[in-house]
Amino acid sequence: MSVEQELIERALECAADDDPELNNLVYRNFYETMADAGQLMSHVDEGVRGKMMAEIYRLLLAEDVAASDGDYLVFETKTHANSYFVLPEMYNVLSDVFLQTLRLSAARVWSPAVEAAISRRLNALTTAIDSALIKNGCATALGNNID
Most C-beta atoms within 10 A of its C-beta, which of 49, 60, 67, 100? Predict the structure, then answer.
């Protein structure tokens, strides 16, 4: 296991142990940062939010998310856009909020090395999501379009 993977896993384990409200905090902070997301997800219950967070953790733990989950992300981003009207910029906002919330929830083990490892992995994930959005013909979270 890579050092990066160990740091990420340790931070997630610490946050789970020290802050049982982590998932709820991520969503609350996301909704406060991006009101459109709160309105969009107002009908989503705690069970579905839990499943969505489980996917975020799974994707964060993937050492090469673009290779392992690229096709899945194309499917999911297309479904999110067409069925739920998710805006491309919501992915980057959620990533930023997740990092900020995790930083506080895993404070006991947080360090510059942990910050760098998680930031790199989140950047890889948002890059893979942007690539999926481009394949779907959407403007990316970075504001680019394939046209």
Answer: 60
